[in-house]
Write a structure and sequence with these properties.
By secondary structure, the chain is mainly alpha-helical. It has one domain. The protein is about 70% helix and about 0% strand. The longest helix is centred in the first third of the chain and has 37 residues.
């Protein structure tokens, strides 16, 4: 078997069993890791107008100086928050490769047109994952030859259009901020992802015919899934852990929050946007960061930038999907996030949010 870790299907009944197993795994995992906890957290946000503090910030809203202590001080609480979602992402990334018949998947997401991109963006809504935890699923989709535009839409849609995060933003910041996030997120997921996907036209493949029957001695779906889980874990987890440590150590350089009361020039906003695009936060982690900094006097423009750039991408997630997309696609995706985040910041300033 190739790197795709794709079993051959011997019957229509087995294909339906594989799809059913994927749906059960996804629903059960997402309910336990995302849907139930975030549902209860919404009531906390409504009652307290807060979802807690952020371990990304040090005293007075200023991250600590770069050091090993700063790296560990960020990485440990970060992984305590996201480890279940990261595990679920790997399990689902393997399941996408093994349990869903490829020809069925490609009929929906394999074309390079806008409808495939839109379908993938809509499929991201129940995922509610951060950019790193959804990265293994994106790798699984690309190994199954899903189009670049569709995979990008799914990847960006998970953090940016997360319904729970939009609710948190509404209760914690304001519903105007939530609307700004929704509009900017939709522009990236349903617009930018489609156009960026066109930079990899060779990645779009025709829908294959169903596989012909194979000898009964082949491996079971369960064994293939376990093998795919091991493959994803081996390839993605080491770089993930190392880069989270690196980003945690460089917080003070990536997120220059110290001059929160100073006027922000276009150059300083650009530096902040690039740094926030590379920084890594858990699901909805941008909300307490922006809330804290607004209370400390941060202007609307940098707050709008952070609300988009922080969750959309990160250096660890870009590295995790590095083999799944051409470099020009990833560079264009990062550039699109920077531009849309700057536009969101300008809009927030113009609307005096």
């Amino acid at each position: 078997m190739s790197r795709e870790l794709r079993p051959a299907w011997s019957s229509l009944a087995e294909r339906w069993r594989g799809l059913a197993a994927f749906l059960v795994l996804a629903a059960a995992g997402l309910w336990y890791v995302k849907w139930d906890p975030l549902y209860h957290k919404a009531f906390v946000a409504a009652a307290n107008h807060s979802i807690g503090g952020s371990f990304a910030l040090g005293q007075a809203g200023a991250p600590p100086a770069p050091s090993w202590q700063a790296a560990v001080g960020y990485a440990l609480p970060y992984f305590q928050v996201i480890w279940q979602a990261a595990l679920l992402g790997i399990l689902l990334g393997a399941a996408v490769q093994v349990l869903i018949p490829r020809d069925w998947l490609l009929r929906l997401l394999g074309r390079g047109g806008w409808w495939s991109t839109a379908a993938a963006g809509a499929a991201a809504l129940p995922g509610m994952m951060c950019t790193c935890c959804s990265a293994p699923v994106v790798v699984g989709l690309r190994r199954s030859q899903v189009s670049a535009g569709a995979a990008l839409a799914f990847w960006l849609g998970n953090p940016l259009l997360n319904p729970a995060t939009l609710v948190f933003i509404g209760f914690v910041l304001s519903w105007q901020w939530a609307l700004l996030r929704l509009v900017a997120g939709a522009a990236l997921v349903f617009g930018a992802a489609f156009w960026i996907g066109r930079l990899a036209p060779q990645e779009t493949v025709p829908v294959p015919a169903p596989a012909t029957p194979v000898p009964s001695g082949r491996r079971s779906l369960g064994l293939e899934w376990i093998r795919a889980v091991g493959n994803l874990s081996e390839r993605l987890l080491p770089v993930y852990v190392l880069l989270v440590l690196l980003v945690g150590a460089l917080r003070a350089w990536l997120l220059p929050f110290v001059a929160t009361h100073a006027a922000w020039s276009l150059g300083s906003l650009l530096l902040l946007t690039v740094g926030a695009t590379l920084f890594v936060v858990p699901t909805a982690g941008e909300v307490p960061i922006v809330q804290t900094l607004l209370h400390l006097g941060l202007g609307a423009a940098p707050a709008g930038v952070l609300l988009i750039a922080l969750p959309a991408l990160s250096l660890p997630s870009l590295a995790m999907v590095g083999r799944a997309f051409p470099r020009r696609v990833l560079a264009a995706a990062a550039g699109a996030v920077v531009l849309v985040a700057l536009a969101a910041g300008a809009s927030a300033d113009a609307l005096a949010l």
